[in-house]
From TrEMBL:
This is Delta(3,5)-Delta(2,4)-dienoyl-CoA isomerase. The chain crosses the membrane at residues 12-37. One of its GO terms (cellular component) is mitochondrion. It comes from Gaeumannomyces tritici (strain R3-111a-1). Coiled coil: none annotated.
Length: 341
């Protein structure tokens, strides 16, 4: 008798569990359908009804006042806009600037009030004309005879420090959208290759200029550009000739996001980038930061290695409450809010 009762209870529990699981599956499907419906109706940055020419309202981010070579503002919730601030010198970089750039992006990476970053140059003439060769060379040329091996070690350390500063953009946990406008030479390509997305004003003039000053580009272009565009022939063309190319060519090879290559003015390009950044910043920061990390890992590893890395990453990330928040917002037809990360 007891055995029959136990079997009956076990079957009842099994049926209950199945019903609960079925209900949860239905709930998840409804949630995702609702989210998909709302996403289709949302006016994104490329929607014809969206006004990209509206100048964003900027709020100064006082926590970044120490970075004197850059202007850091917030045009939208959880969005930071970084401007290279040396317009009288075409935003060219000297050593103090690139060291500050690395420290700035390391700070942004850990800032819970930032979920996406827009990077542009101050003024209308240039994003950056590259390295201020005269200022940078001071102190590197020995005034007396130095052992070549020791001088080589000093130079290697200097290059490594420079590379690390620029790589901080790529390593930033927050997506970075680069606005290319005006003159974009040399270091401009190094920097923009580190960004996650690139948009372009119609006046942008781009070039990998290093061979014209007698050096091979050593800060990242030769390592990253082939991975960004996928055409080694085109990469060798622009790197070996140092020729200038424009927005149409940049978009055609995939260097600039599709449809983001002919903004009439710098202001339009910045507004478009800010719209993209705001769209990203409205998503779950757990999901966004995880997506960037997993995509960057996949770029540098095999599919098998990337799948294993994703398993480990999501074993922790899937425990977030952001999934519930996103699903409920879809069911309740409201915009989701997510805790700071």
């Amino acid at each position: 008798m007891n055995e029959k009762l136990f079997i009956w209870q076990f079957k009842a529990v099994s049926v209950s569990v199945r019903l609960v699981l079925s209900f949860l599956c239905i709930l998840f499907r409804i949630g995702f359908l609702a989210l998909g419906f709302r996403t289709c109706k949302t006016k994104g940055p490329n929607n014809s009804n969206n006004n990209n020419t509206t100048t964003p309202k900027y709020t100064t981010m006082e926590a970044y006042a120490e970075f004197t070579h850059f202007i850091v503002t917030s045009p939208s919730p959880f969005v930071a806009h970084v401007e290279i601030n040396r317009p009288n010198k075409l935003n060219s970089f000297h050593e103090a600037m690139w060291l500050q750039l690395g420290a700035l992006f390391n700070r942004l990476s850990a800032d819970p009030d930032v979920r996406a970053v827009v990077l542009s140059g101050a003024g209308n003439r240039a994003f950056t004309s590259g390295l201020d060769v005269k200022a940078t060379s001071e102190g590197l040329i020995p005034q007396e005879v130095v052992d070549p091996a020791r001088q080589a070690v000093k130079m290697r350390r200097h290059i490594a420090e420079f590379q690390a500063s620029i790589s901080a953009i790529e390593k930033c946990e927050k997506p970075v959208i680069c606005v290319l406008h005006g003159i974009c030479y040399g270091l401009a390509i190094d920097i923009s290759c580190c960004a996650d997305m690139r948009v372009c004003a119609s006046d942008a003039r781009l070039a990998v200029k290093e061979v014209d000053i007698g050096i091979a580009a050593d800060i990242g272009t030769l390592s990253r550009l082939p991975r960004v565009v996928g055409s080694l022939s085109w990469v060798k063309d622009v790197c070996l000739t140092a020729r200038v190319f424009g927005p149409d060519e940049a978009e055609a090879v995939g260097f600039v996001s599709p449809g983001q290559h002919r903004h009439a003015t710098k202001a339009d390009a910045v507004a478009a980038a800010t719209g993209l950044a705001a769209l990203v910043a409205a998503k779950s920061p757990v999901a966004v930061q995880g997506t960037k990390e997993l995509l960057n890992h996949a770029r540098d590893h095999t599919v098998e290695d990337s799948l294993k890395y994703t398993q480990v990453w999501n074993a922790g990330a899937l425990q977030t409450g952001d999934v519930k928040a996103a699903l409920l917002s879809g069911l309740q037809k409201r915009k989701p809010t997510f805790e700071k990360l």
